[in-house]
């Protein structure tokens, strides 16, 4: 009854002019369809992709309508400016920003600018910084097991990645500060938990639900602690700038935080916002990187014949350059650009285990009319069924097979294809990192981190599933994909 009254009183909103998919009958209310999207998004997307015959369709989530477009629209969407169709807006909207203190992300691009204008142009300078921290944290963060030992591998990887990321963003000694490392790891988990829990309910319940989510209050405590650390670093940087203005010669570590402090607006560099921004930057840089490495290890354990193939590639490079993290006189670029088979393995692992079932996504800031008349109303979400596309036999032959050398064969068969099928490169048939100018801005750094970690793991460890265990299934909430956090692996030193 309450729901009926609410629906009668709620103001109407524009909907995309495409059919809604998923109703079990003409009489099924929208609220049931939306509730099934929470845990059944994969089945709904799969069914729609098969039945809608390459036509636009709508999937309904509690908080938003998704207009799912066929791939023939991809280039047209790529050319629409971010002030009309925004990837950042879609990503921020998924974080329940009004209940997680993330609203500032809607009006600021600084966290994207630093990746596009500073990190990517000087990529391997920063990858080398991360590699040195990888060497420092290796024995601290990974079990040095001489016999088979069962470990929660993703937990260890998160801490290792947190060190590497903090070295680049925050510098020393923060990258070795146990408090910041804990914030980096816990903030991602707690913010995701908060946002996804809220999104499992209708929007009119958000305020009530938010009050009883323990992870939300942990997130606020982490933001407070993170702001304190960033505030101290900001003060130190401002003192250095003052001394330089007086003509003093002062050395200061080159970090992405310093670049942001020097290039942000007054509101962006204010400690309250900058501290939250540094916490937010850990979301993609730590959680997804650790998940990608974990998925690669799970895939290797499920297909152990590839261990020796990838291990020999790493060893061959090591014979020339030295071990992955020991000869710092050799740039990480030499390693990352030569791991062709590992690169291909990652692309295939990511194809089977994406972060999102719907990607790229765009939030419409205004009504958009596409060339064929399809309307994207303001406030709705536009997306592509990237996972279903990657599992389409017309796109990938034998798509259900795990074929780690798909990309390698394409790259080796034609010199013009060498750069089209690499990890981190956006392509209409590889949308794991998005597409076009709004693709993931930090993807090249993430790929480099993953390659360095995997190369060293392969050179130094063996892995297998615990007795009686098999590859864990990917878990889903709405269109989001997660590794099984209860999964352990057996590992020992070679």
CATH class of the largest domain: Mainly Alpha
Number of domains: 2
Task: Report the sheet with the most strands, covering strand number, pairing sense and barrel closure.
Answer: 5 strands, mixed
Ends: how far apart? 64 Å
Label the structural class. alpha+beta
Residue share in helix: 40-55%
Describe the secondary-structure layout.
Elements: H1 2-9, H2 30-51, E1 57-60, E2 65-69, H3 74-78, E3 85-86, H4 87-93, H5 97-100, H6 110-119, H7 123-141, E4 149-151, H8 153-169, H9 178-199, H10 206-210, H11 214-245, H12 256-263, H13 266-269, H14 271-302, H15 305-321, H16 332-336, H17 340-352, E5 361-364, E6 368-369, E7 375-376, E8 381-384, H18 386-390, H19 406-413, H20 443-460, E9 461-464, E10 475-477, E11 480-482, E12 489-493
Parallel strand pairs: 2-8
Antiparallel strand pairs: 1-2, 3-5, 4-12, 5-8, 6-7, 9-12, 10-11
Helix pairs in contact: 6-12, 7-8, 7-20, 8-9, 8-14, 9-11, 9-14, 11-14, 14-17, 14-20, 15-20
């Amino acid at each position: 009854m309450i729901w009926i009254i609410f629906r009668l009183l709620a103001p109407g909103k524009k909907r995309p002019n495409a059919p809604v998919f998923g109703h079990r009958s003409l009489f099924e209310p929208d609220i049931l369809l939306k509730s099934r999207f929470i845990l059944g998004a994969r089945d709904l997307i799969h069914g729609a992709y098969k039945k809608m015959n390459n036509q636009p369709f709508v999937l309904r989530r509690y908080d938003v309508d998704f207009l799912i477009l066929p791939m023939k629209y991809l280039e047209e969407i790529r050319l629409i400016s971010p002030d009309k169709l925004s990837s950042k807006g879609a990503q921020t909207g998924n974080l329940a920003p009004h209940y997680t203190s993330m609203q500032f992300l809607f009006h600021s691009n600084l966290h994207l600018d630093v990746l596009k204008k500073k990190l990517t142009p000087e990529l391997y300078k920063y990858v080398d910084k991360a590699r040195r921290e990888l060497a420092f944290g290796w024995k601290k963060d990974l079990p040095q097991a001489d016999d088979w030992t069962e470990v929660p591998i993703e937990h260890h990887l998160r801490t290792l990645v947190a060190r590497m990321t903090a070295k680049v963003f925050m510098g020393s000694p923060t990258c070795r500060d146990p408090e910041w490392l804990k914030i980096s790891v816990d903030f991602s988990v707690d913010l995701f938990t908060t946002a996804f829990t809220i999104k499992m309910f209708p929007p009119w319940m958000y305020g009530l639900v938010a009050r009883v989510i323990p992870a939300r209050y942990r997130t606020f405590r982490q933001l407070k602690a993170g702001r304190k650390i960033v505030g101290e670093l900001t003060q130190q940087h401002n003192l250095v700038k003052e001394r330089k203005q007086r003509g003093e010669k002062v050395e200061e570590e080159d970090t992405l935080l310093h670049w942001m402090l020097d290039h942000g607006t007054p509101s962006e560099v204010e400690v309250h916002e900058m501290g939250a921004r540094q916490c937010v930057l850990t979301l993609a840089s730590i959680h997804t990187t650790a998940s990608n490495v974990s998925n690669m290890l799970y895939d290797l354990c499920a297909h152990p014949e590839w261990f020796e193939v990838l291990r020999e590639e790493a060893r061959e490079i090591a014979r020339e350059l030295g071990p992955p993290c020991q000869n710092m006189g050799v740039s990480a670029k030499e390693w990352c650009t030569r791991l062709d088979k590992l690169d291909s393995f990652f692309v295939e692992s990511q194809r089977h285990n994406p972060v999102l079932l719907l990607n790229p996504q765009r939030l419409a800031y205004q009504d958009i009319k596409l060339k064929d008349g399809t309307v994207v109303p303001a406030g709705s979400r536009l997306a592509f069924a990237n996972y279903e596309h990657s599992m389409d036999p017309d796109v990938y032959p034998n798509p259900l097979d795990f074929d780690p050398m798909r990309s390698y064969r394409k790259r080796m068969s034609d010199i013009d294809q060498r750069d089209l099928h690499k990890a981190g490169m956006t392509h209409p048939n590889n949308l794991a990192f998005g597409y076009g100018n709004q693709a993931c801005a930090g993807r090249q750094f993430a790929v480099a981190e993953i390659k360095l970690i995997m190369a060293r793991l392969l050179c130094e460890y063996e892995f297998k599933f615990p007795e009686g265990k098999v590859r864990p299934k990917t878990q889903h909430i709405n269109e989001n994909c997660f590794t099984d956090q209860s999964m352990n692996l057996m590992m020992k030193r070679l």
